[in-house]
């Protein structure tokens, strides 16, 4: 699977101590979204943290933990989900060339750091055919689901291979919130022992909250 993309729309810290402290919850988030059930962490880490709209010229390696300081600033600090989606669509070919996903991606925001959740987004693909028999392809539409960190990888993986539909993960009766985000309603992740062990090591080292 191609490496996955994380956007980080966090406001720049107004105080140096806040900047230093931010790396702790960020390390926790980046650890908990790893694939501990089917992958060999950290050898097979697949997440890349993107904080700049300026993409690298070569394929980046997965973000390694622990990170010792949070980004001083991020181009996505005040970006809405629509603005992040617009960026993903504009950079679709570049992301593909860098082996980064563009159809599915994850947003880590301050609300998510506080609640141990992230936003899993999926681009809507329109299978309607034009007069030449070609599908219309990716659209500008996307649903987003606020899911527990531990469930992000399995949801991303299943969406990526079309093994499950987005609707199977969300509470359709509850519907979307005021920001158009769906609520998570399913639990698939089972591997917790190894995840808890690594998280404890990060906490003992002062790298995680």
Automatic annotation (TrEMBL):
InterPro entries: DUF6924. Residues 72-178 form the DUF6924 domain. This is DUF6924 domain-containing protein. It comes from Roridomyces roridus.
